[in-house]
Amino acid sequence: MRLSRYYIPTLKEDPADAEVVSHKLLMRAGMIRKLTSGIYNYLPLGLRSINKVATIVREEMDRAGAMEVLMPMVQPADLWVETGRWDYYGKELLRLNDRNGRDYCLGPTHEEVITDLVRGEINSYKQLPVNLYQIQTKFRDEIRPRFGLMRGREFIMKDAYSFDKDEEGAEKSYFEMFEAYKKAFSRIGLRFKPVQADSGAIGGDFSHEFMVLADTGEDTIASCLSCEFGANLEKAKVAAPAGEDMTNADCPAIEEVDTPGQHTVEEVCKYLGVDPSKLVKTLLFVVDDEPVAALVRGDRELNDIKLRNLVGGNEIELADEELVKKLTNAPVGFAGPSGLDKDVPIYADHELCAATDWVAGANKGDTHVKHLSLGRDCTIEKFADLRVIEPTDPCPECGGKIEFTKGIEVGHVFKLGVKYSEKMEATFLDENGKPKPLIMGCYGIGVSRIMASAIEQNNDENGCCFPPSIAPFEVCLIALGGKDQAVTDKAEELYSSIKGLGVDAAYDDRKERPGVKFAEADLIGYPMQLVLGGKGLKNGIVEAKDRKTGEKIELPLDGFVEAFTAWRKEIWNNWGLEVK
């Protein structure tokens, strides 16, 4: 492609509203433009990169036996009502009406639509397994869209859905997709890690996220340095404490103490002269409109996702100040498990079993209690893993050392089971002629987010450093001939040679200063840059630059094709990629 004819509206300065590196560079490199909050136009360079991501994903889906379909973005409310998600999905679901007043939504995902499709077509075990996928635009009305393509409202996604006759088949389909994802992300050139994850609004009982490792990632991943364990903080298990259960151990009689104006853990512990590890923190939540209490040690952080899953709820939020006062007869900061409203079930982190003689709120203003025994002084519904894992915790699987890293979610695989098929009566006849619900899995990849994630992982002070597999153009040939027709003619010859090799090349034939061409080539992040000027032509060489390392070498003009082919292979190998 000749850049003199190409639309690349680059910017010299970072946009004022751009917060993360990928957003800044995608805007500056002329790859995207904002239309409105969380919604972007994909410009030619950006779309080329996204299409290359989609091609790799599509090839791996096809290789794994999935078949491509395309479903409507506009979905009727009736299907969502069938599964109960019309109300549960909340405000992220953009709802609309047609001219006849019928309810619809813009699809944030397609479980309902695909289940409706197959229930009308699949009726026998002989038709199974089936795996259908699409690459399509989704819309989720994020409460606070930010970070450009990282968390926009409209985005391009690959979503696949598997249907099996039994659990064995469903597990096989799940891990076929798991392996296909690993191959796709490896081919793209990403450094990534699959981790255990919570299923969230999609549902199901088993899922993994694929996280691109980047210091700017929103998510924190807990990984073991000794085994394969990895999980995001929402999902990461904390091993039960070793040793004796002290829940019912001897403890002095409970005693109230005045703590005037001491609301926080830090204030109470300083006032009473105790360590935060000796205080029980009582947190009040509302899960699906019902109040629950959760207990953790004072120096720990409660994991509300674990609490929600333990209770078996859908939505969870902290109780507001008014509800706290109603349940505890005290201001916020003085809640405790002893004497709490009897209609509020109490769940406690299993770490609290390892000790007794606790400090806690007294459910009375400016008052706490000492010598609290959880077995004697209150009724615990259940002890369970309820807290956020910490770097000092041992690996829950092997006991090894835990490491925290940052990551960006680019893929998610779910084992759905019969969550949707039962509610929508998507059944088949088994070998004995009996109707059974289809067993489902679903598998998503953020296609547009991958482009942004690749930049978050690969950039420097000069701009993007695209992996060659998904760069808008793999190589950029920069001609510096000016009015020197001999340089122009040779550049044209080199451009034809590169295209003849099947390499995706850009030819910067613009009448711009060399500095502008070099700066924009680095900004856009072409993995390979070739520079031909009058001096190089005279000396029979073209300068070749590796964008990732900045290393420059000279390729001979005589025998250029062979030298370029070898250099290109080396560039791909340095990315851990196999050259096409």
UniProtKB/TrEMBL annotation:
Residues 38-467 form the Aminoacyl-transfer RNA synthetases class-II family profile domain. Its main location: cytoplasm. It comes from the Bacteria. It catalyses: tRNA(Pro) + L-proline + ATP = L-prolyl-tRNA(Pro) + AMP + diphosphate. Keywords: Aminoacyl-tRNA synthetase, ATP-binding, Cytoplasm, Ligase, Nucleotide-binding, Protein biosynthesis. Gene3D superfamilies: Anticodon-binding domain (3.40.50.800), Bira Bifunctional Protein, Domain 2 (3.30.930.10). Its EC number is 6.1.1.15. CDD domains: ProRS-INS, ProRS_anticodon_short, ProRS_core_prok. Homodimer. This is Proline--tRNA ligase. The gene is proS.
